[in-house]
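Task card 7
Instruction: Convert sequence to structure tokens.
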Amino acid sequence: MLDLEPILLVGAGGHAKSCIDVIEQEGRFSIEGLIGLENEVGNQILGYPVVGTDKNFPTLLQNNKNILITIGQIKSPELRINLYEQLKKYNCNFPTVVSPSAYISKHAVLGEGTIVMHGAIINAGAVVGDNCIINSQALIEHDVTISAHCHIATAVAINGGVNIGQGTFIGSNSSIRQNISIEENSLIGMGQQVLSDCTAGTQIPKLKG
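Output:
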């Protein structure tokens, strides 16, 4: 049996459960515990203990250098960015985690701390930055560039040649036309069709049911 590398997860909510499942399926890491909020310490998340809060980083990171940020991102990337920058000061390793049911072209590039979830496809020439979430069944087509700290939600389709700026969220089932740019810190709501360039900070609400 292979020895698994230990890893700590930062975040103990719903997104962490999905990340745990991907990590278990990938089979590279042994989850040593999760870091959460004060009221979460002592809880179990899918059988793994919440072992502390960010106040315990100096102690917890002495013997655990592999870290994955498992806090979700919808309204703002700020918390994930702040944690990433804070953890960088401890010289942590940020492995890239990929579900075995995802397809990643050998000609694609994935940044550190990024997770690619079940059924996602990342095609040739695509580049995904650091600390991103590529969620279940998302399609990232050829030559797409996704900057750091983005969340591409479930079943999003990003067509070829698109550029997505740092800290952007693309909501579930949205589709992005080929060769356009969505600049940094934009929020594209669920179910949208984006057909032209978006300036920095664009906010497009989700479609109403």
